[in-house]
C-alpha cells in the first residue's frame, strides 16, 4: 500500500487527512477538540518547534479513498534514539489490516533511521487499541492524564484565598507578563527555567532530558505564531537577584475561541518551596480573564504520577477528563523486521 506524504499546501491531501482524523476523534475521543483543517495544515507546516513531524495518507493498493493517517516524528535536538508514532485508521475501514500495515511501516522507518525506541499511545480505556499495541510488541510504560478547567465552575473566593497564601510564600518574587516576541536578552534565561520541566515524572519510558536553549524558545514561539495561536507567558523573577525562578505558558486559538491550553509550568530547582507554580497559574488565570474573556474551558496534561502539579491543578478547579497510556517498543538494531503478517490485525 502506498504512503502519500501530506504537504501543508496540498489541499486535497490535507482535507482527506483531516476528515479521517475528525471521524476518528468523534468515535475514539469525543471530548477532544474538533480537528479543523486550517489548524491541521498549520501543524503540518510548523510543528511545535518549526520541525514538523512527517504525516502520510495510506491509500489502498489499486487506489480509492485513503484509509488511514500515519504520523512519524524523529526528535532532532535530543533523544535521537526515539521515534514517536501515531496510527489512525478511518472508522469504517478498521479490522482490515490497515493498522497492521502502518505498524510495520513504523518499524521499517525506525530501523531505516537507525533508531531503537518507538512510542505510541492510546486511551487507557481503549481495550482494542491496547491489545493492538501489545500484539505489535509494545509494553505499557507511562500514564498521562488530561484535565479540564471549566471557568464558569471556578470559585473566585477560593482562588483569591489560594492567591493570598501563595503571595505570602513567594513575597521575594515579582510576576512579569510577557507576550511574543520574547526579548533577546530573556531567551536564554527562559530556556534555563523551561528545562526544569525535565524533572517531572516520565514513568518507565526510555528517554533523555530534553535540551532547552534560546533557539528552541524562539522556535516554539515562532511556530505558535505561524499556526495562529496567541501565546501568553508569566515569569517569576527573584527580587533580590533578578534571576528567573519559574514560568508558565497559556495558548489560545482564534479558530476555537472558547478553548485554551495550559502549557508547561516549571519552577527551577533552587526556587521551589515558595508556591510559585500555584501563583504563576493563578496570575495566568487573571490575565486570561482580562484579555480572552470568551474562553470557557482550559485543558492541561500531566504525567499521571506527577502528584504535586496535579494537586495544584485540582485546587484551581481542573477535573480529570481522561487517562491515556504511552506504550514503548525497543528494537534490536541487528534484528530483521517482523513480517506484517505476524502483527495483530486492526
Automatic annotation (TrEMBL):
CDD domains: NAT_SF (cd04301). The keyword Glycoprotein does not apply. PANTHER family: AMINOALKYLPHOSPHONATE N-ACETYLTRANSFERASE-RELATED-RELATED. GO terms for molecular function: acyltransferase activity, transferring groups other than amino-acyl groups. InterPro entries: Acyl_CoA_acyltransferase, Bact_Acetyltransf, GNAT_dom. This is Acetyltransferase (GNAT) family protein. Residues 4-158 form the N-acetyltransferase domain. Keywords: Acyltransferase, Transferase. It holds the Pfam family Acetyltransf_1.
Amino acid at each position: 500500500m502506498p504512503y502519500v506524504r501530506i504537504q501543508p499546501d496540498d489541499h486535497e491531501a490535507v482535507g482527506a487527512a483531516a476528515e479521517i482524523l475528525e471521524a476518528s476523534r468523534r468515535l475514539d475521543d469525543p471530548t477532544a477538540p474538533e480537528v479543523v483543517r486550517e489548524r491541521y495544515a498549520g501543524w503540518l507546516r510548523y510543528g511545535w518547534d518549526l520541525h514538523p513531524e512527517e504525516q502520510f495518507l495510506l491509500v489502498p493498493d489499486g487506489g480509492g479513498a485513503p484509509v488511514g493517517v500515519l504520523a512519524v516524528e524523529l526528535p532532532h535536538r535530543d533523544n535521537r534514539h526515539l521515534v514517536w508514532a501515531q496510527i489512525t485508521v478511518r472508522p469504517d475501514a478498521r479490522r482490515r489490516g490497515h493498522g497492521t500495515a502502518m505498524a510495520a511501516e513504523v518499524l521499517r522507518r525506525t530501523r531505516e533511521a537507525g533508531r531503537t525506541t518507538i512510542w505510541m499511545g492510546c486511551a487507557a480505556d481503549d481495550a482494542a487499541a491496547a491489545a493492538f499495541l501489545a500484539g505489535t510488541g509494545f509494553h505499557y510504560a507511562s500514564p498521562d492524564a488530561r484535565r479540564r478547567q471549566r471557568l464558569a465552575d471556578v470559585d473566585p473566593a477560593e482562588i483569591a484565598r489560594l492567591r493570598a497564601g501563595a503571595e505570602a510564600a513567594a513575597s521575594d518574587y515579582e510576576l512579569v507578563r510577557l507576550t511574543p516576541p520574547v526579548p533577546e536578552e530573556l531567551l536564554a534565561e527562559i530556556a534555563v527555567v523551561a528545562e526544569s520541566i525535565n524533572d517531572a515524572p516520565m514513568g518507565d519510558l526510555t528517554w533523555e532530558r530534553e535540551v532547552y536553549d534560546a533557539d528552541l524558545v524562539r522556535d516554539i514561539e515562532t511556530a505558535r505564531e505561524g499556526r495562529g495561536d496567541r501565546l501568553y507567558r508569566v515569569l517569576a523573577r527573584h527580587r533580590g537577584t533578578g534571576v528567573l525562578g519559574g514560568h508558565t505558558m497559556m495558548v489560545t486559538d482564534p479558530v476555537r475561541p472558547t478553548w485554551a491550553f495550559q502549557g508547561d509550568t516549571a519552577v527551577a530547582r533552587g526556587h521551589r518551596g515558595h508556591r510559585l507554580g500555584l501563583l504563576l497559574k493563578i496570575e495566568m488565570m487573571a490575565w486570561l480573564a482580562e484579555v480572552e474573556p470568551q474562553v470557557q474551558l482550559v485543558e492541561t496534561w500531566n504525567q499521571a504520577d506527577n502528584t504535586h502539579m496535579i494537586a495544584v491543578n485540582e485546587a484551581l478547579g481542573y477535573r480529570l477528563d481522561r487517562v491515556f497510556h504511552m506504550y514503548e517498543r525497543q528494537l534490536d538494531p541487528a534484528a530483521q523486521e517482523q513480517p506484517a503478517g505476524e502483527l495483530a490485525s486492526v
